[in-house]
Amino acid sequence: MGQGRAGRREWIGLAVLVLPCLLISMDVSVLFFALPFISADLQPSGTEQLWIMDVYGFALAGLLISMGALGDRIGRRKLLLIGAAAFGVASVVAAYSWSAEVLILTRGLLGIAGATLMPSTLSLIRAMFHDGAQRKTAIAVWTGGLTLGATIGPIVGGFLLEHFWWGSAFLINVPAMVLLLVLGPVLLPEYRNPAAGRFDLRGALLSLVAVLAVIYGIKQLAVDGFEPLPVAALVVGLLLAAVFVHAQRTGAHPLVDMALFRVPAFSGAVVVNVVAMFCFIGSTYFTTQYMQLVLGMRPFTAALWSLAAMPLVVVGMTVTGVLSSKVRVAVLVASGLVVLATAFAVLTQLTPTSPLWLLLLGAGGVAAGVLMTTSLTSDLMLTAAPAEHAGAASAVSETASELGGALGMAILGTIGTAIYRADLPAGPATLGEATATGDPTLITAAREAFTHGLTVTATVTAAVAVLLAFIAYRTLRHIPIAAKEPVAA
To answer: What is the full per-residue pLDDT of the chain (489 aa) written as tens digits?
Structure first.
């Protein structure tokens, strides 16, 4: 494949690559509506219910780095097709699961397969789009596919459950994976690193356990507070992460070239990704509950209204794409973060009786600011890495996003919960529990307390976004306009 501008084949290939991204992000949220039906059918215990929901994300996050490095060694297209076949087969088994244990196992297999697909799709974009402006557009489309999948997951889940049984939420994956298996060999190029060396199995195990322990610890701290087990998991995960970094710096064939983190374009982009997803996931946790429990919307109605954010997202992404060849990336990234901070400032104005448009304006601005930013930083991480390490660089990008999201849920969730309990010390522990009592006075007080927690977290994230905008501009300001490869400061 030539090194010039991409043609029709590459753009059609991009559509094929976006399809698995759409489904992978949908699979994170598509079970939100299905869980009650699964519980009635399979009768899982409380612990099994948690594993049904969480094992997919744990397996996905824990294996991203390993699978990205594996794709660099055996071929990114080959790994993508292997993952697509596994994802399709696991989806069928999940749809017809006859016990909670089988469903947990197949959800884990779906997470493993998803980990092979995510870095492969992004690194193949690097191999297909050599023109800087086209590559930025392609990554923006790829990022939009991920966001759209997470947005429409609950909508698709709600629609399917109104017309079919819960297994249909898994079967929708199968046609897309078949299409990928048919069109992938025709439209997608193969790329592998001929000098990659042997696969670092020890590093793969260290990264898996470290990421799993850190994300588990963060999530459980958000739910249970400072209990011994999640604290221990977090500490062990951080220690293993330190061992992993040391092993990667000294090993002969590391999964990740740690020298990349000395390149400001790469390390700065990683930090921006972590913090942007921290803000996005943490705020989404509150805004979705606000729509359902404060404004009183049914989940399916709230999911449909969430699509109102799309116009702002499209405008933000279009403007970023047009300006990417005329304006320095540092200015564009900082501008996206300013949009993000402004949107959080809008959310600080919410009250329990605010009009819906105010919430939609703030939530839409948050989504637009995050996507304007992360589409640019994903491109920076890809192009800062040598082509032969693009798979590993893509995996670092995705792992940063997963870690940022987990931190957002934990830290911002904890802040919001603390405010809620301080305002309502003698009331139910959550707004959902207060709503279930049916007591109008208690519900009103709980809604006010929850909204106070939301506005405080929005204030915190607005300040974080402003600080990050300053840091991002300082870190990335030496990258020239429309450079094909970022340069170190």
So the answer is: 445 676 677 788 888 888 777 777 776 666 666 766 777 788 777 667 767 777 777 787 778 778 877 877 787 788 888 988 998 899 999 889 888 888 888 988 888 888 888 777 777 777 777 776 677 778 777 777 777 776 677 677 777 777 778 888 788 888 888 888 888 787 777 777 666 667 777 878 888 888 788 877 877 776 666 788 888 888 998 999 888 888 878 777 777 777 777 777 788 888 888 888 888 877 777 887 788 788 887 767 777 787 777 788 778 777 877 787 778 888 889 999 999 999 999 999 999 999 999 999 998 898 888 888 887 887 787 777 666 666 667 677 777 777 777 677 767 877 887 888 888 887 777 777 788 788 888 888 889 998 998 999 999 999 999 999 998 898 888 877 654 444 333
Enumerate long-range contacts of 32-40, CB under 8 Å, 24 or more apart: 32/153, 32/154, 32/157, 32/299, 33/154, 33/157, 33/158, 33/161, 33/299, 33/300, 34/157, 34/161, 34/166, 34/169, 37/161, 37/165, 37/166, 38/103, 38/166
From the list 319, 358, 313, the residue with the least C-alpha distance to 335 is: 319
d(CA 288, CA 264): 35
Radius of gyration, alpha carbons of the chain: 22
DSSP H/E element including 162: helix 132-163
Please answer whether residues 168 and 95 qualify as being in contact, where contact means their C-beta atoms are separated by less than 8 angstroms.
yes
Total residue count of the chain as it appears in this document? 489
pTM across the whole model: 0.74
Residue-wise burial string across 211-232, b where 16 or more C-beta atoms lie within 10 A, e elsewhere: bbbbbbbbbbbbeeeeeeebee
Burial profile 53-80: b = 16 or more Cβ within 10 angstroms, e = fewer: bbbbbbbbbbbbbbbbbbbbbebbbbbb
DSSP three-state, residue 74: helix
Whether residue 184 contacts residue 16, with contact meaning beta carbons closer than 8 Å, is answered with: yes
